[in-house]
């Protein structure tokens, strides 16, 4: 017998060096040991046959390398070789290694503990996968429920908005007639004042309802763009006319810095006018008496088509800007009591700009003022013959 057989026959058989499947040296239990060794000719099975038994035999010669042994294992589909020893089952994993005197030996190491660890790891993985799937299903159900509730809310707002607009139109229309005394004099000046308040309140309420209706359409994905070439200067002047009474009442100075030769913008004209009207309404609302509002617009190849509205109003703290851009956002209760509004002005502007593939940027400083910049993609710039975009 060769070196390993001599070691196994010696008195110190209780401590045997084993090479595992990774080629690492180690010690396995004293008595539950098995060796399958390659000898010249047919494969020889280790001693102590009364306690140790193999179920598979692989022929291996000293000249055969690891590749040949692995090929035989693959053909016989042998990986874990069951071994009975000491009254218990041992899972063995075989490998080839130069162990003693540079001789190649086919060895088996006890991997029962490793298989137990692998099984525990596999069970833990399966449990984790099941828990993850359960959480994913819960999330999907919660998301679907939230989307259903959101759609129901949007549909409710849309339906209620239509129902409320009908009587409001009558209130506004009749109060308009009474304000102008088209059907004859009202009489008491106090009645004239009351009618004016009714008319103004009706228009404010109609504006809030329109904002709710528009936002519900955006959320429901029912807002489409009717695009055409828009003259931004004309849209600006049209939007300013809608708030001119409030501008005059507060003595606000408005400066429009939009060149007559600026290219047109390919967009939904009604939404562009509504965007500008909302921005001007906010600027007038939060700008003190005798303040100022500046409107600019320009085109650049890099930044696209930019419209900018700056006011000298009360301003917003940087940490409050996300709230101002959120639906129904009011920065604090003092503002909500002092300034009328639904809190949908800026969120609606942002949604409409994003529908055009653009973005909204808000810069503000408390006590100084606010600048809102709308950036539309350069692809929406409509050039006339001979016009060029500044780089």
Layout of strands and helices, then pairs:
Elements: H1 3-9, E1 17-19, E2 25-27, E3 36-37, E4 44-45, H2 66-75, E5 80-85, E6 88-98, E7 104-110, H3 112-180, H4 189-220, E8 227-230, H5 232-242, H6 244-250, E9 253-257, E10 264-268, H7 269-286, E11 292-300, E12 304-311, H8 321-324, H9 333-338, H10 345-355, E13 359-365, E14 369-376, E15 381-382
Parallel strand pairs: 9-11
Antiparallel strand pairs: 1-2, 3-4, 5-6, 6-7, 8-10, 10-15, 11-12, 12-14, 13-14
Helix pairs in contact: 3-4, 4-10, 5-7, 7-10
Structure description:
This protein is an alpha+beta fold and 391 residues long. The protein has three domains: 3-110, no CATH class; 119-220, Orthogonal Bundle (Helix Hairpins); 227-382, Heat Shock Protein 90. The chain is 45% helix and 21% strand. The chain has ten helices and 15 strands. It has helices at residues 3-9, 66-75, 112-180, 189-220, 232-242, 244-250, 269-286, 321-324, 333-338, 345-355, and strands spanning 17-19, 25-27, 36-37, 44-45, 80-85, 88-98, 104-110, 227-230, 253-257, 264-268, 292-300, 304-311, 359-365, 369-376, 381-382. The strands form five sheets. A five-stranded mixed sheet has the order 9-11-12-14-13. Helix 4 crosses helix 10 and helix 7 (269-286) packs antiparallel against helix 10 (345-355). The protein is extended. The relative contact order is 0.07. The model is unreliable at 1-66 and 76-110 (pLDDT under 50).
């Amino acid at each position: 017998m060769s070196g390993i057989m001599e070691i196994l026959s010696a008195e110190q058989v209780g401590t045997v060096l084993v090479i595992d499947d990774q080629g690492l040296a180690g010690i396995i239990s004293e008595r539950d040991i098995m060796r399958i060794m390659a000898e010249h000719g047919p494969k020889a099975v280790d001693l102590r046959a009364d306690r140790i038994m193999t179920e598979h035999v692989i022929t291996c010669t000293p000249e055969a390398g690891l590749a040949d042994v692995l090929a035989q294992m693959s053909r016989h589909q042998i990986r874990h070789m069951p071994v009975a020893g000491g009254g218990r089952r041992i899972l063995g994993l075989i490998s080839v290694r130069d162990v003693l005197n540079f001789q190649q030996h086919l060895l088996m190491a006890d991997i029962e503990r490793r298989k137990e660890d692998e099984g525990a790891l596999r069970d833990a993985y399966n449990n984790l996968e099941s828990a993850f799937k359960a959480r994913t299903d819960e999330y999907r159900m919660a998301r679907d429920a939230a989307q259903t509730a959101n759609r129901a809310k949007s549909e409710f707002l849309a339906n209620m908005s239509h129902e409320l607009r009908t009587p409001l139109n009558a209130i506004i229309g009749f109060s308009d007639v009474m304000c102008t005394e088209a059907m004859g004099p009202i009489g008491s000046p106090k009645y004239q004042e009351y009618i004016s308040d009714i008319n103004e309140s009706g228009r404010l309420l109609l504006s809030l309802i329109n904002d709710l209706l528009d936002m519900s359409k955006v959320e429901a994905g029912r807002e489409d763009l009717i695009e055409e070439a828009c003259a931004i200067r004309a849209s600006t002047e049209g939007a300013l006319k809608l708030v001119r009474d409030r501008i005059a009442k507060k003595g606000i100075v408005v400066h429009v810095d939009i060149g007559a030769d600026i290219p047109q913008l390919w967009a939904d004209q009604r939404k562009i006018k509504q965007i500008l009207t909302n921005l001007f309404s906010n600027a007038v609302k939060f700008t003190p008496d005798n303040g100022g509002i500046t409107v600019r617009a320009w085109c650049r190849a890099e930044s696209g088509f930019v419209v900018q509205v700056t006011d000298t109003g009360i301003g917003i703290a940087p940490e409050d800007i996300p709230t101002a851009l959120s639906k129904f956002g009011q920065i604090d209760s003092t503002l909500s009591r002092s300034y009328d509004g639904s809190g949908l002005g800026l969120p609606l502007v942002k949604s409409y700009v994003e529908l055009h593939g653009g973005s909204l940027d808000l810069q503000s400083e408390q006590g100084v003022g606010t600048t809102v910049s709308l950036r539309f993609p350069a692809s929406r710039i409509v050039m006339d013959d001979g016009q060029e975009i500044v780089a």
